[in-house]
Amino acid sequence: MTILHPEVAKALSENGIRFETLECDPADADTAAFCARYGYPSDEVCNTIIVVVKKTPREYVACLVRADTRLDVNHGVAAEVGFKRLSFASPEETAQLSGMMIGGVTLIGLGEPMPILIDELVLEKSAVIVGGGNRSSKVRLDPHELLKLPGARRAKIATGV
After folding, report:
1. In contact, 63 and 51? CB cutoff 8 Å
2. Buried b (16+ CB within 10 A) or exposed e, 104-118
3. How big is the CA angle at 63 (ends 133 and 89), to the nearest 5 degrees?
4. Distances (CA, A) of 90 to 19, 38, 52, 95, 118
5. Bridge partners of 154?
6. Any residues with CB less than 8 A from the CB of 68 and at least 6 apart, and which?
7. Which of 64, 107, 134, 140 has the smallest count of CB within 10 Å of its CB?
8. Over the stretch 17-57, which tens digit does the pLDDT of each residue have?
9. Which of 75, 72, 83 is CA-nearest to residue 121?
10. Does the structure show a pLDDT above 80 at 1?
C-alpha cells in the first residue's frame, strides 16, 4: 500500500516515472515547515501552482517552481501561454481542480488535464521533491522524469534566485 494520493501513484506508474516516496508529518507538509523539519534545502523542494488564464471558458496551467524562487505570472507564464490576463487559482479552486489537499498539490496526477510548465531552474537539480497529493507524503525524483507527464514542458517562469 502506498501513502501517496491514489491519482499520483497511478500517474507515476502509467508514465514510467522513477521516484522515491517520502513520508512527512501532515503538520509539516507546507514547504517552509517541511524544509525546516526534514533538513531539505529550499532549492530542492518545489511547489506546484495552478494559474488561471482568464479566457471564456477559463483555462488553467500547472506551474512547477523551486521553493527558493517566485513564479513570474505577469511575464514568464504570460509569455508561455500567450495571454496576459492571468491570476493565481484560489486554494479552493486549486483543491477542486487537482483533487488534492493544499500542502500536497502536485503536477503529477492532476484531476483536471492542463498544460504543465516546469521552470528551467527545477531541471538544473539532480533531484527535487514535489507533493504527494496529500499532506502525509512527498515524491523525490530526478526532475527530468517529470517531462514524461502528458502536456509537460520546460519553461522560464521563475524569478528571485
Report:
1. yes
2. bbbbbbbeeebbbbb
3. 80
4. 29, 28, 9, 9, 20
5. 118
6. 41, 42, 43, 160, 161
7. 140
8. 999 999 999 999 999 999 999 999 999 999 999 999 999 99
9. 72
10. no
Residues 118 and 144: beta-carbon distance below 8 Å:
no
Contact 41, 35 (CB under 8 A): yes
Cell numbers representing residue 18 in the block: 522513477
In this predicted structure, what is the pLDDT of residue 161? 67
3-state secondary structure the chain: CCCCCHHHHHHHHHCCCCCEEEECCHHHCCHHHHHHHHCCCCCCEEEEEEEEECCCCCEEEEEEEECCCEECHHHHHHHHHCCCCEEECCHHHHHHHHCCCCCCCCCCCCCCCCCEEEECCHHHCCCEEEECCCCCEEEEECHHHHHHCCCEEEECCEECC
Distance CA 43, CA 64 (A): 12
CA nearest neighbour of 142 among 18, 27, 48, 30 = 18
Length of the chain: 161
C-alpha–C-alpha distance, residues 38 and 50, integer Å: 26
What is the rounded CA–CA span in Å between residue 149 and residue 158? 20
